[in-house]
Write a structure and sequence with these properties.
By secondary structure, the chain is mainly α. It has one domain. 50% of the residues lie in helices and 11% in strands. The chain has helices spanning 13-20, 24-32, 53-71; strands at 10-11, 40-41, 49-52. A three-stranded antiparallel beta sheet has the order 1-3-2. The longest helix is centred in the last third of the chain and has 19 residues, at 53-71. The protein is globular.
Length: 72
């Protein structure tokens, strides 16, 4: 059995889109504006990129918290 916890898993773009409900183009735009976690290369010099699930979870928690604060 693996010692890797769910939050330390690496997610790829399709999984990020599914988890956040955002499109690829929106994610790329948010990254360019510094509003979404940057991906990292899975292999040096390679094309494959990913995100740690814990970073995406934190992004979603922050967005939810900020949305609730503005609504109050």
């Amino acid at each position: 059995m693996s010692n890797v916890t769910k939050t330390n898993q690496v997610l790829r773009m399709a999984e990020i889109c599914h988890k956040t409900g955002l499109s690829r183009s929106t994610i790329h735009d948010l990254i360019a504006r510094g509003l979404f976690p940057r991906s990292f290369k899975l292999v040096p010099g390679g094309r494959a990129a990913g995100w740690f699930e814990s970073e995406i979870d934190e992004y979603l928690r922050t967005r939810a918290t900020n949305s609730h604060v503005r609504m109050s």
